[in-house]
Specification:
It is a single chain. The protein has 16 helices and no strands. It is mainly alpha-helical.
């Protein structure tokens, strides 16, 4: 059996519960490893003070915001590849992948250029004070050097996961995280022959690691070492196919964009309560994101399984994967909520000794843990819609729950009641609950079943 086949999980014929776990676990680990990029930067930056932590937190939201503008194209191509795999048409799946990677390279380079043009005005947009602003510009100036590589990696990983291979992306991410962890302190603190670059060194280390990862991924796919191989024979951009990818990808981008806009807006609201609260929110959000990596992995598994099984004409398995995801995630989220409640404070103290920051971060965590299961149920459900080829429906529910409900409620509770910043934390939980309720209602109506890919 080839390495590519050993990495493959059969989502069309395998047992649902175990197939979901076998596919989701390496993907969750990949996402967790990816999160370590920022945590490594935060750990080293914490030696520079709370302002540096706040700068990285806000800067990462900017990068995530721009990432969502282009990454939806990767999601769209993955949805189409999954459907073609389910239909047994691997040649068309490979052609779709080849078209997508070239288009993504063009798109990623354009977005990177926009980031550098916008860089001088970003600190004011996020209401950063002078110290945080200085750190943020320094960090982002180097971080954006790897932005194109990051998007290309996302595109390739999306394609490979759509074929049933979640292991290769995990291996690449582990390697790049190790590179980042090793290189970062040399560049930040000027160890040995390296100049002391401060927070700029953290950005440069991350960019260098991302470029290394992209180089390895391209080599593996071009040489046939992964489960998909690009086909550039008589290559010409197929505008009709790219438009079909875009029709799937644009709503996916808008969905992720709504998440990013919501976080950026929340950072703006939180920023009005001072640096300590911003640093607390940054650290608390990191804990949440660690927890949610498993949610993202299971939800993406549901999306891929939905596309493949609809392509294979096995609609009952779509419902089976959805039920399995909710059941397994509910148990997992309940367990992780308890772990965060009891062990969140020691994690926060790894990054800061400021008592105000620690107190507020723990308060955040002891509130938002009540939204974990709601978020998991909502995300697993809307990914059924996108996997079926109804991404606009998925986008509308996500954006409505976050931008339409959670964000206004956060503003009202924090500015019109004595709750202050605690009102923001409560609004996050309520928003997740409403998101889950809306997603389940639409799922049961079944209007997503008529989508065409």
């Amino acid at each position: 059996m080839s390495p590519a086949n050993r990495q493959h999980v059969d989502l069309i014929n395998g047992p649902i519960d175990s197939s979901l776990r076998r596919f989701a676990v390496p993907m969750a680990f990949s996402f967790l490893v990816n999160m370590v990029y920022s945590l490594i930067d935060r750990f080293y930056a914490s030696r520079l003070g709370d302002a540096a932590i706040a700068a990285i937190g806000s800067s990462d939201q900017v990068a995530f915001f721009m990432f969502t503008l282009a990454s939806g194209f990767g999601v769209g191509s993955g949805i189409i590849v999954a459907r073609r795999i389910g239909e047994g048409n691997r040649a068309e799946a490979a052609r779709t992948a080849s078209q997508a990677i070239v288009a993504m390279a063009i798109l990623a380079a354009s977005v990177t250029g926009l980031l550098y043009l916008a860089l001088p005005g970003l600190p004011a947009l996020l209401r950063m004070n002078d110290v945080v602003s200085q750190y943020a510009v320094q960090y982002m100036g180097f971080l954006f050097l790897g932005f194109t590589a990051n998007l290309l990696n996302f595109q390739m990983f999306s394609i490979l996961r759509s074929t049933g291979n979640a292991v290769f992306p995990m291996v690449v991410l582990i390697c790049t995280t190790i590179i980042n962890a090793v290189v970062a302190p040399f560049l930040i603190f000027g160890i040995g022959p390296f100049p002391e670059m401060g927070l700029g060194g953290a950005g440069l280390a991350t960019a260098f690691a991302q470029i290394c990862g992209t180089s390895v991924s391209l080599w593996a796919i071009m040489s046939g070492k992964a489960s998909m191989r690009f086909d550039f024979t008589a290559f010409r951009l197929d505008t009709h196919l790219l438009l079909r990818i875009a029709r799937q990808g644009i709503p996916a981008s808008l969905q992720m964009l709504s998440v990013s806009l919501n976080r950026l807006a929340l950072f703006g609201i939180v920023g009005g309560f001072g640096t300590s609260v911003t640093a607390a929110y940054t650290l608390g959000l990191n804990v949440d994101m660690f927890v949610f990596m498993s949610v993202f992995a299971v939800a993406m598994t549901v999306e891929v399984a939905t596309g493949q099984n609809i392509g294979a004409g096995k609609h009952d398995r779509v419902h089976g994967f959805h039920r399995s995801a909710i059941r397994q995630l509910s148990v997992l989220m309940g367990s992780l909520a308890l772990a965060v409640w009891f062990f969140g404070e020691p994690f926060v103290r790894l990054y800061t000794t400021n008592p105000d920051t620690v107190t507020e971060a723990v308060r955040y965590l002891h509130t938002t843990v009540f939204g974990y299961i709601f978020f998991a149920v909502g995300l697993a459900t809307v990914r059924v819609f996108s996997g079926a080829g109804a991404p606009f429906l998925s986008m509308a529910i996500t954006a409505g729950g976050l931008l339409g409900l959670q964000l206004p409620l956060a503003w009202i509770l924090s500015h019109s009641t004595p709750l202050a910043q605690h009102g923001i934390w409560i609004a996050i939980v309520v928003g997740y609950a409403l998101f889950a309720a809306a997603a389940l209602y639409v799922y049961r109506r079944g209007i997503w079943k008529n989508a065409v890919v």
